[in-house]
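ping. complex inputs:
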Amino acid sequence: MTAVISVPAFLDEQSFEQVLEQVAPLAPDAKMLVDARHTRFATPFGLTALLCLAQSRAEKPDFTPPSDDDVKSYWARSAFFRYAEELFTLRGPVPRARASQDSDVLLEVTPIAKSEDVHEVVERVRERATHILTHKLRLETRATMGFAMSLSEACQNIVEHAGRGGWVGVQVYNWAKRRVGRQVVVISVADAGQGFRRSLDTARVRAIAGDRWSDGEALEAAVTQGYSRHTEPGRGQGLKGIKGYVHRHDGRLSIRSGSARMTIVPPWDDSPAREDGLPMFIGSQLQIIIPERAEGA
Amino acid sequence: MTHIDVRSALNQSLPGNYSDLITRNTGVLVRSVIEERLAGLADGTVAFLDFSHIRLLDRSCADEILSKLMLPMTTDHPPRDGYVVLHGLDEFHLEIIEAVLETHQLALVVQLPSLEARLVGSVTEQERRCWEQVMRQGGAIADTLAIEIGMPCESCQEMLEGLAKRRLLRCVANRFLPLGQAA
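pong. complex structure:
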């Protein structure tokens, strides 16, 4: 019997939990149809996480694309179908993938597996992003460097720690009507690899966490305390750099791994700093949101 | 004194014509090219690592290059007798490098576009004062410097030796000399 997983109309970091709640009770090899017919909007987090979902299954899942042509066209421009075709059995026609004409798509969904991929991603984003980041988001040139650095560090976490390839996507949004009240740029980096808990599961780190060792503790160890599975000093600099950048620019950083999520929460957001007991999901999914520079900042 | 173009070390390390010094893997490759070049230099040589043609630098890559290059050189028994000065850094590079050096309690001499030399990384105010005085004078011995900066002679000697051990000054026949041009 095929389990039908309904994708919410608005697919982002929060609503992806609804997808995971439906998937959690299923056996890894259960036949699954991911139904996105009614989905009208998806963030890079939603798109990259859907690809990770397919990677996490022992049995190739089916996928029904959005029924709305505009939505389908946007997903095609975001290169989602290019990779979904390999990971899902698509049930329904999808537009041919073309180079994105959408200026707000700073980076289509792009696979990351090796160090050279990170170089390519940073080169491509720089070409498209500098104008948008300095004009739309009014970031200083130096801040655009920090943006590229954060992107690089987030992507190389996949290369260094995930144990398998992952995905990155970057998009600009006008969130004038949301609480942040400004334009934002969103980076999403997701993988279906081993996750923080397994990556950090060394005698050294476990000795510190003791009996409390869990996905949440692993995230806490990496994000708050700067632990890495590598013992040499200086490791863990990447996340530290991202945190510093996010903090300086009133941004939001969230990392989900296993059944937990940690969020560096800016004043314009009210997410909990740490969530445990979420539906289990393989790998790690990171999202960075940098808002437009506020007036007078 | 010798000049090492970091961009050319990057291009030698990776296929493609990149100008971003990013990812730890890239750092490993670039460092080994730099180490190879340093190994060919005479003892006591000051090598200028030129970042002028580098656009982006991330912390992981900077850590892999600079900390692993400098940590062995600042031990009691360094594998070679050499010095490194950073050149061609922009403000963003400086910020990244400073954070990396502080993580390891390291410091380095940076030559600014004005050719003025500056100490970046983990140094105390007193060490900085002492170092700047040596730079201004183009060299110093502990006895005289101690009087000039109002410090006990033994402490001054110890501090200068410490700066030399950290490869921030050269010590030649009990005289402490700058690496870059005097401010």
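Residues 51 and 84 of chain A are 6 Å apart (CA to CA).
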